[in-house]
Amino acid sequence: MSLFSTLHIALKGLQAQQKGMAVTGHNIANANTEGYSRQQVILKPSRSIEIGGMRYGTGVDVAQVRRIRDEFLDMQLRSVKSKMGYWKAKQDVLEQVEVIYMEPSENGISTLLTRFWDSWQEVSKNPENSAIRVNLIENASALTDAINATYRDLDELKIDINRTLQTTVQEINNTAQRIAELNDLINKTQVRGQAPNDLLDERTILLEELAQMVDIQAYSTDSNMVDVYLGGRPLVAGGKYLELDLNDNYELVWKNTPGTPVDINGGKVRGLIDAREEIENNYMADLNKFAEKLVEEVNKLHRYDDTVSPPNKVYGMAAYDEATGTWNNIQGGDFFEDVSGSSAPARDIKVHADIIADSNKIAAATSPDSPGDGSNALRIAQLKDKLVLNEDAGGNPTATFHSFFTDSISRLGVQAQQANNMVDNTSVMEDQLARRQESMAGVSLDEEVTNLVQYQHAFAAAAKVSAAIDEMLATLINRLG
């Protein structure tokens, strides 16, 4: 083997150690970079050659710059992040629902409903007292205002969820586009014989962000690209991607086929959709049932109706006319405005305008010519304990107004607690997986400094070999010259 061959071996040694120091420096520089995966230079002996029947080594080559990361842990992390996205979205929405209801509180519907029944009880005891009648109107108005406000706030929350869904769907589309672009860049980088490690890190971060929004499945290809599936359909395939959209009902669909729904079972989007459905189908629906039945039951007893059996003859405050020597009796009308034709009784419930204008029209009596009769007010007060809602299989109601409403609030509390527990539990799982991945992919400064010293010494040794060969060549040239 010639001296020039040996010099070339020293050169390759210098280049290999220099590459090792460069990668080590890159690791140290990114020690605190989120999502960065530690890189490692893999060295291998160069192919040997045969000279004079003997084989000689030709130095060292850089086989690859390997990215240290556990793909299985990444897959587990994405799955956990989808669960976290789902439960965090539900937790945030349910917390807002609890704030809207304000239960229990002085201004909550439950407290105001109790005051409403108590006011009827007071009217039954002293129907001639105008201040007590006015107090009933005020408490009834406070109750209806609270029901109106709660329903409107829930409806506004539902609209906010739809706005959030629009923003999130756009984020999904942008992320899918960027993943497809990175797939192309990774492929082109590899074709040039370069390591796309930093591009792979960027893509991993995007996959985790995407998993938090929707439950995806990601599969690596032989060319180091990744195909992303959503609901069994490809969202990203190589350098191409599909977009999602929301239809007029704010349901998630594929943009290229608007009638095709996206099958999702996790992530922020699923959490928002489920929370929206709970608001609409449970809490808003319960408020509507509550308000409609309240109007129906109170008006039925407060309205004069001699066509039913038995007749419901009820009267407001009777006034004696001294000029004619007769009593002026006011037949009872609706206490609440009729909401039977409303699509949202909880939004429209309110005290009847005639009652607000004249408290004497409160039908507290069941007998004419009896200003001191409060028997009908007592009948209405007794609605407090009447079973009126939640019919069983036989069509028999099983809940009072109060128990129906408190059951709804209790269900809200259970769901909110479940969401809180799931967020806490999932957070623990996410932290454990992240720590395991960090222990493998994270940068240890102590380890990197050790590697740096090793590369330094190897570089110095290769430089000495180069210097020795150079000196030998100089001696040989000078003597032969």
Brief rundown of the structure:
The protein has 481 residues and is an alpha+beta fold. Helices cover 59% and strands 13% of the residues.
Largest sheet: 4 strands, antiparallel
- The secondary-structure element order is HEEEEHHHHEEEEEEEHEEHHHEEHH
Beginning-to-end CA distance, first to last residue = 22 Å
Note the overall shape.
Answer: rod-shaped
Look at the helices and sheets and give the structural class: alpha+beta
Q: Helical element count?
A: 11
Any low-confidence stretches, pLDDT <50, length ≥5?
none
What is the total tally of β strands? 15
Rg is 39 Å
Strand-residue proportion: 5-15%
The average pLDDT is 93
Task: Output the strand order for the largest sheet.
Answer: 5-6-7-8
Helix content: 55-70%
List keywords for this structure.
15 strands
Lay out the secondary structure.
Layout: H1 3-29, E1 39-45, E2 49-51, E3 54-56, E4 60-67, H2 71-101, H3 109-125, H4 130-191, H5 197-213, E5 216-220, E6 226-230, E7 233-237, E8 240-241, E9 244-246, E10 252-254, E11 257-261, H6 267-302, E12 319-321, E13 326-328, H7 345-348, H8 353-357, H9 375-381, E14 389-391, E15 397-399, H10 401-441, H11 445-480
Antiparallel strand pairs: 1-4, 2-3, 5-6, 6-7, 7-8, 9-10, 10-11, 12-13, 14-15
